[in-house]
Write a structure and sequence with these properties.
This protein is mostly helical and about 120 residues long. It is built from 5 helices and 3 strands, in the order H-E-H-H-E-E-H-H. The chain folds into 2 domains: about 60 residues, Winged helix-like DNA-binding domain superfamily/Winged helix DNA-binding domain (Arc Repressor Mutant, subunit A, Orthogonal Bundle); about 35 residues, no CATH class. The termini are far apart.
Amino acid sequence: MSGRARFRIHEGAGPPYRQLRDQIIGAIGRGALLPGERLPPVRTLAEQLDLAPNTVARAYRELEHEGWLEGRGRAGTFVSGTPPERPSDAEARLAEAADRFFRRAEQLGFDREGALRALRRS
């Protein structure tokens, strides 16, 4: 991994996998992580950040699914050669609001479908 990209997990700043995911996207956007650059193995990064390996693996999986990263089996995980377009600021704010809504609905005991039904009724 480039020496320019450093990740930190902050207590109370949201789920650790989401913090890591967002920081990796930010590092790609700033050019601190370049296309084709290899990220640390899951266990190595988990150890560095004092996280469970499954937490790092979840962040990597989400980023692969979104097109930010490419998993290459035993060769490792790499920054995608063609990262997805970043949403506009308004889209990003709306996505954050939706995420907060679904997290709150979950705290209240509702699943995603229940939360969507409530939205449709409003």
